[in-house]
Design a protein that fits this description.
alpha+beta; transmembrane; glycoprotein; single chain; 2 helices; Ig-like_fold; immunoglobulin domain; signal
Length: 340
């Protein structure tokens, strides 16, 4: 009596374990290029209490372009048949077990999806054939989808002057100069760029919407997936209060932040009174002013030297060469000077 109770307990436990259906994949969403397994065995089916022997086990698929399921891999252990159809050549199929009459717990079919593409997305399910009574059973179809990742580039600023020895994602700019910050990223449809700024630990949405321009997304197909390239620009004229401001481009999907890049602007000490020398009323920079002063002073010295040479050398020579310089003076008495 005790033995009978024990066997009933074990049999009931086995029923519970077998009836608890396990998913055929670990997750339903994979990025393009990923590798994962799709597993078919009895643990993936719900309630197989009447089945002790299995004739075959298969993996079926229905792509978005198809109207029905097709068999892409199957295994018949007793007939020693292994079949694969309509799957990429790099995919791998693993067959195991299935020998003997009570083969339900050993038969196994694993398809390794290599370099998953968006075109491979669709419904997948496992199927088995049971001989007595003859029927087939299927797992619940799972919808395996391709999730395109988001790739965001670093923010690019123009004009840009990298701070030597500091963060490369920063720039020194002059107050009064117009700067352009460009944010670029790639991903699925319906992404948005959100500009924010941060200073002194306080972060907020960028308040001037008119300074932001979002270009129309550019469509392309990468790894069989519909992909979009996005560009957003922020233009503004720098003020002294902008010194040290951190600009942030946030990539949003369904109002959820997916990615962000940051760029720090540092204003120079020059004030807004600095005007370009090419404009009326402008003043040269300090270096140009010093050079001009030195040149002017040198010219003045040269002019003075020339004047001195003229009066003290040239005029004296003229007096020496004049004939009147050799006439002897006449004394009041009318006689010539004796020493002449």
């Amino acid at each position: 009596m005790r033995m009978e109770i024990f066997f009933k307990f074990v049999f009931g436990l086995l029923i519970v374990l077998v009836s608890s259906q396990q998913p055929i994949v670990n997750q339903l969403e994979y990025p393009p290029g990923d590798t994962f397994n799709i597993t078919c065995d009895v643990s993936r089916f719900a309630d197989l209490r009447s089945a002790g022997e299995l004739l075959s086990i298969s993996l079926l698929r229905q792509l978005s372009t198809q109207t029905s399921f097709e068999n892409i891999a199957s295994y018949e252990p007793k007939a020693e048949k292994k079949m694969t159809t309509n799957i990429p050549i790099q995919w791998q199929v693993f067959y195991a077990g299935g020998e003997g009459i009570n083969n339900r717990n050993t038969i196994r079919l694993v398809v390794t999806v290599v370099d998953f593409q968006c075109a491979d997305a669709g419904l997948y399910q496992c199927q088995i054939f049971i001989p007595a009574p003859s029927h087939q059973a299927n797992t619940t179809p799972v919808n395996i989808t391709a999730k395109i990742g988001i790739t965001q580039k670093d923010i690019y600023m123009t004009p840009h002057k990298k701070i030597i020895g500091e963060d490369i994602h920063s720039s020194v700019n002059t107050v009064g100069v117009e700067i352009t910050l460009t944010c670029s990223f790639t991903g699925p449809a319906n992404l948005q760029a959100l500009w924010r700024r941060k200073k002194a630990g306080h972060e907020e949405n960028y308040p001037y919407a008119n300074n932001i321009k979002n270009s129309k997304p550019v469509f392309s197909v990468i790894s069989g997936c519909n992909t979009y390239d996005y560009t957003s620009e922020l233009k503004c004229t720098l003020e002294e209060k902008d010194n040290g401001t951190l600009y942030i481009c946030v990539v949003m999907e369904d109002n959820i932040e997916r990615s962000r890049k940051m760029f720090t602007n540092i204003c120079s000490e020059q004030s807004t009174n600095n005007i370009s020398p090419s404009k009326p009323g402008s003043r040269p920079d300090s270096a140009g002013s010093n050079v001009g002063t030195r040149v002017f002073g040198l010219l003045v010295v040269l002019v003075i030297i020339v004047v001195l040479i003229y009066f003290f050398v040239i005029q004296k020579n003229k007096q020496i060469e004049s004939p009147e310089a050799y006439l002897c003076p006449v004394l009041p008495s009318g006689d010539w000077c004796g020493w002449c």
